């Protein structure tokens, strides 16, 4: 067994434990600064990890370290660092247990790291549970707020249900094929392509993953949980948990059962199209900003599924590219929410009124984030959508399946609808009708400025110099077709 | 470094620099913006003068790889088609920056957006890479929305902002799908850097030798026509334009109506026509009739307007009809005329919106019922507005006349009925609404409340209008400056459209390029037979 492959995970778990222990000795007023320490530690891990490119498998093939895993691990580390910065800003709203909050984020991160390397259904399930269970706690962390508790309970019930589906599915797949390892399954999957029990099991597994990424018809939880959860939790849910769902989805569909997936173009097209339309249409009337972003995250799951439905390497690479742009964009938006709505209970869009006078930096960040989510150059979102659409149209021309053209135009309609509600947020910042209630300037701490600067730089860098990221994504997805 | 890179780089660089200037340094912010556009204009004039007429291929080229795996590169260059457009864009951008006096709040953001828009537009026209061509246009489009929303005027500003945002985004996205589909028509092994990729000259060359399949043409061409058509306010997709321009602050309206709108037309001429000749032949019949909607219907709507800005907005939509007619004629004279009107209308639209913005700034209204007799109070602005109106009616001496008359000569051979009707619209309708508007605004009794309004007093205020008027007159009196540059390249485009049509039934690819241009009628006959024999 090659335990050195797990170095990163071991360090991250150790960090989580240290954070919990530090709680005992740290004076109360200093506890919130543990977040910076944790972020710094993760940043160090990220930097030391950049050079290491050891590949291989461990635990008899359960754990795989390949290009895809490395790509996603870096992704999760960056996300966790930015979320920790955000949590420090948020800490004054948590009555107790701030260091537990940090350590839970780190544990969720370790679950995501394992998910990136999962190459076996058991591993898949364990890593998903590690992520989901920590998120149950993170979601309901503001015990005093009813919405937070409500969000936690909703997430718990639906999450437990989807886990049950998934275990049942895994049992059926194992029962029919006798394989849990993805590579071994790939070699026999084609024999079971007509086996109804096997297919039923696979559908149940995909349903569990669909819950993670909030794809139709498993998207119901997203708006409520996004709205109720503490803002850093929402941000981590939107970025980390979704990306973990996608890496597992890619591995299951394209490593474990590629021969079966090849027949699933039409169902994937339909799910992707409905997810896009559902997310975008439901976002139109939203007043609460976090709820709006919840629906928009459903829509973005739909866009990402374009790349899955394309069933091609360029589609998979587009997903990776899109996610990396999405990371900086969404975290930028949530950081602004976290800083602006510090003393507000409602988190309504109208609370952004006058933001450009209160803090031009935050106003600019929010505008850029909305513009990037809408997919407008020169920000990251545009090139991501371009790659996804290109992958879909390419597949349409290769296969002649007209469903892909319909999907392209559905995505187009979704983008146009989304411009309306993202534009509404920008309007609230710059030219809202209702007079702003509060015009006091917003003071930003140094680290918060750093986090925002990273998000802005990320949006511009990925959008203006896509070459590096496109090449990384192209390299990473080669691991899928082993 | 190509001079083109400097032309579009200065405004963008200045925009970045302005981010770091504190917001209360208003004079500096303004000076930086005006200076950057001024340098860019000087460079554009220099480029225009250095342009070698009749030189085969592109000039001032520069290419830097951007995304190698997809074959995207930063590639700029000019030929006869876009050299004039870039000059026009740079002059209008400078004029717009000068006219930005009227912006009194949040100047920093305004000038940053204005400079981004300028750089984006000039870049889109200079770009020889399909991806950047689209990318830079979108980059210029976004500031428009924010500028209308934040600095716009009128009660319906909010509605106008969202209408123009959604409408133009639909157009742009449809065009994007068309462009991606076009890129994917190239075989997969030629799509990387150094091969064909998104490079427009190489794509043109490739499709000249290997014409696209009929089915693909019939799929992609309508997408491009519809997408670009929406961006250019082709009837019946024009409704965003008058209200959008009416609500926009005047520098934005000048840049958008003058320059940015020409993007779709340029895209049609540069990309859609030469790459998809067979579909182009087919769709041009329809386009010719749609352009009558622009000329007659929108002209008719313009007659009913009571607001000066809405009138100018509608008349600007009507002028697009002449350009579409020139493109639809698919012959050398018509296409050359279309390019001339594109340039002339850029100056004209900028001038009209600039002047109406001045009047709005002084009076606070543009309702023609409330204005009157302003010529007495505005000895500079009034006559300038009158000259703009006369240029809009197509008076000889202004560049618009040259373009319109060329278009009619070109279109007469192909669409005599449409041309006859369009002529009526050009001569009668536009003269009617323009002169009536001038009577209402400039002549007649002067209402008491306007007795104190000042004229454009100092040189800085007069400069943008004088510059635009001078450009209109120069190109109107010496149209050869433009035509001799445009004609050789327009001829190439027209040749590609008319030569390649019979290609799919005519035989193998190699002989097709050297075929002499067959006559128009046999062409369309061949197209019909090919459409009948070829399964779609």
Describe this structure in words.
The complex is a heterodimer of chains A (482) and B (536). Chain A is mainly alpha-helical and 482 residues long. Chain A has a domain at 264-482. Chain A is built from 20 helices and two strands. Chain A has helices spanning 7-25, 34-51, 67-90, 98-117, 121-139, 146-177, 182-189, 196-213, 221-228, 231-256, 258-261, 265-283, 289-309, 313-340, 355-358, 360-374, 380-399, 402-430, 446-464, 466-477; strands spanning 56-58, 63-65. A two-stranded antiparallel ribbon of chain A has the order 1-2. The radius of gyration of chain A is 21 Å and the shape is globular. The mean pLDDT of chain A is 89. Chain B has 536 residues and is mostly helical. Chain B has one domain (3-500). Chain B has helices at 3-19, 26-50, 80-98, 107-126, 130-151, 157-183, 200-209, 214-231, 240-247, 250-260, 262-275, 277-303, 308-329, 332-363, 374-377, 381-393, 399-414, 416-442, 459-477, 480-499, 503-506, 509-512, 520-533, and strands spanning 59-67, 72-78. Chain B has a two-stranded antiparallel ribbon with strand order 1-2. Chain B is globular, with a radius of gyration of 23 Å. The termini of chain B are far apart. The A-B interface holds A 356, 360, 367, 371, 376-378, 382, 386, 389-390, 393-394, 397, 408-409, 412, 415-416, 419-420, 423, 426-427, 430-431, 433, 466-467, 470-471, 474 and B 23, 65-70, 106, 109, 131, 135-136, 138-139, 141-142, 145-146, 149-150, 158, 161-162, 165-166, 169-170, 173-174, 176-177, 180-181, 183-185.
């Amino acid at each position: 067994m090659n335990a050195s492959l797990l170095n990163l995970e071991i360090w991250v778990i150790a960090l989580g434990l240290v954070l919990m222990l530090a709680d005992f000795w740290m004076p109360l007023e200093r506890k919130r600064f543990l977040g910076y320490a944790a972020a710094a530690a993760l940043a160090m891990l990220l930097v030391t990890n950049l050079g290491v490119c050891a590949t291989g498998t461990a635990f008899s093939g359960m754990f795989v370290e390949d290009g895809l895993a490395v790509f996603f691990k870096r992704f999760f580390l960056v996300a966790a660092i930015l979320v920790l910065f955000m949590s420090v800003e948020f800490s004054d709203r948590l009555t107790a247990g701030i260091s537990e909050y940090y350590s839970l984020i780190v544990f969720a991160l370790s679950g995501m790291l394992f998910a990136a390397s999962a190459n076996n259904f058991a591993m898949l399930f364990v890593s998903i549970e590690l992520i989901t269970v920590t998120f149950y706690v993170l979601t309901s962390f503001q015990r005093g707020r009813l919405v937070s508790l409500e969000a936690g309970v909703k997430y718990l019930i639906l999450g437990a249900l989807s886990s049950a589906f998934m275990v049942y599915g895994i049992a059926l797949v194992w029962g029919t094929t006798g394989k849990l390892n993805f590579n071994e399954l790939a070699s026999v999957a084609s024999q079971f392509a007509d086996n109804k029990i096997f297919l039923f099991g696979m559908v149940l597994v995909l349903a569990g993953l669909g819950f993670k990424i909030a794809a139709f018809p498993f998207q119901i939880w997203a708006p409520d949980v996004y709205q109720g959860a503490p803002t850093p939790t929402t941000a981590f849910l939107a970025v980390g948990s979704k990306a973990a769902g996608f890496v597992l989805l890619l591995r299951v569909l394209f490593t474990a059962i590629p021969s079966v997936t090849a027949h699933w173009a039409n169902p994937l097209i339909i799910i992707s199209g409905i997810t896009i339309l559902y997310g975008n249409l439901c976002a139109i009337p939203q007043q609460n900003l976090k709820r709006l972003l919840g629906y928009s995250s459903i829509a973005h799951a739909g866009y990402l599924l374009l790349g899955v439905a394309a069933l091609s390497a360029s589609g998979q690479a587009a997903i990776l590219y899109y996610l990396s742009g999405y990371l900086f964009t969404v975290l930028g938006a949530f950081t602004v929410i976290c800083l602006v709505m510090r003393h507000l209970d409602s988190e309504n869009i109208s609370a952004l009124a006058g933001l450009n006078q209160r803090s031009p930096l935050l106003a600019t960040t929010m505008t850029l984030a909305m513009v990037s989510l809408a997919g407008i150059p020169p920000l990251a979102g545009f090139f991501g959508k371009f790659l996804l659409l290109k992958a879909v149209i390419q597949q349409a021309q290769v296969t002649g399946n007209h469903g892909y053209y319909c999907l392209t135009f559905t995505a187009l309609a979704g983008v146009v609808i989304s411009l309306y509600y993202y534009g509404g947020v920008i309007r609230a910042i710059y030219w809202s009708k209702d007079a702003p209630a509060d015009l006091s300037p917003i003071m930003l701490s140094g680290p918060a400025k750093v986090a925002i600067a990273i998000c802005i730089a990320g949006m511009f860098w990925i959008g203006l110099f896509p070459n590096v990221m496109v090449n990384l994504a192209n390299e990473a997805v080669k691991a899928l077709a082993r | 470094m190509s001079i083109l890179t400097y032309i579009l780089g200065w405004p963008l660089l200045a925009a970045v620099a302005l981010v770091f200037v504190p917001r209360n340094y208003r004079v500096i912010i303004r000076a930086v913006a005006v200076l950057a556009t001024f340098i860019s204009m000087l460079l554009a004039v220099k480029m225009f003068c250095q342009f070698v007429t009749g030189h085969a291929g592109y000039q001032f080229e520069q290419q830097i790889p951007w995304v190698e795996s997809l074959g995207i590169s930063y590639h700029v260059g000019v030929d006869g088609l876009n050299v004039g457009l870039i000059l026009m864009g740079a002059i209008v951008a400078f004029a717009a920056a000068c006219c930005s006096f009227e912006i009194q709040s949040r100047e920093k953001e305004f000038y940053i957006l204005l400079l981004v828009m300028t750089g984006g537009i000039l870049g889109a026209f200079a770009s020889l890479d399909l991806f950047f061509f689209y990318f830079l246009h979108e980059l210029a489009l976004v500031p428009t929305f924010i500028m209308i929303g934040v600095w716009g005027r009128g009660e319906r500003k909010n509605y106008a902002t969202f209408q123009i945002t959604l409408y133009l985004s639909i157009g742009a996205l449809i065009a994007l799908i068309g462009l991606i589909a076009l890129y994917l028509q190239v075989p997969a092994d030629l799509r990387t850097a150094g091969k064909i990729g998104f490079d427009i000259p190489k794509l043109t060359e490739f499709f000249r030798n290997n014409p696209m399949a009929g089915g693909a043409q019939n799929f992609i061409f309508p997408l491009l026509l519809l997408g670009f058509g929406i961006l250019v306010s082709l009837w019946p997709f024009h409704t965003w334009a008058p209200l959008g321009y009416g609500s926009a602050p005047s520098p934005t309206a000048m840049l958008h109506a003058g320059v940015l709108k020409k993007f779709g037309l340029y895209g049609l001429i540069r990309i859609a026509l030469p790459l998809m000749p067979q579909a182009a032949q087919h769709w041009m019949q329809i386009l010719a009739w749609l352009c009558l909607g622009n000329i007659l219907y929108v002209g008719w709507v313009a007659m009913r307007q009571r607001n000066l800005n809405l009138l100018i907005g509608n008349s600007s939509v009507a002028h697009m009809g002449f350009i579409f007619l020139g493109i639809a004629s698919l012959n050398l004279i018509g296409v050359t005329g279309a390019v001339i009107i594109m340039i002339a209308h850029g100056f004209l639209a900028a001038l009209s919106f600039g002047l109406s913005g001045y009047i709005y700034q002084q009076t606070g209204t543009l309702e023609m019922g409330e204005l009157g007799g302003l010529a007495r109070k505005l000895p500079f602005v009034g006559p300038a507005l009158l000259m703009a109106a006369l240029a809009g009616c197509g008076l000889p001496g202004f560049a618009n006349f040259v373009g319109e008359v060329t278009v009619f000569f070109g279109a007469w051979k192909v669409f005599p009925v449409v041309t006859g009707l369009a002529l009526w619209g050009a001569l009668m309708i536009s003269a009617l609404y323009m002169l009536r508007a001038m009577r209402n605004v400039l002549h007649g009794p002067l209402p008491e409340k306007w007795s104190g309004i000042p004229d454009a007093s100092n040189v800085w205020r007069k400069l943008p209008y004088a510059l635009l008027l001078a450009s209109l007159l120069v190109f109107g009196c010496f149209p050869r400056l433009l035509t001799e540059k445009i004609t050789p390249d327009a001829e190439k485009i027209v040749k590609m459209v008319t030569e390649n049509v019979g290609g799919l039934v005519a035989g193998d690819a190699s002989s097709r390029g050297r075929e002499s241009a067959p006559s128009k009628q046999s062409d369309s006959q061949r197209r019909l037979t090919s459409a009948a024999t070829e399964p779609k």
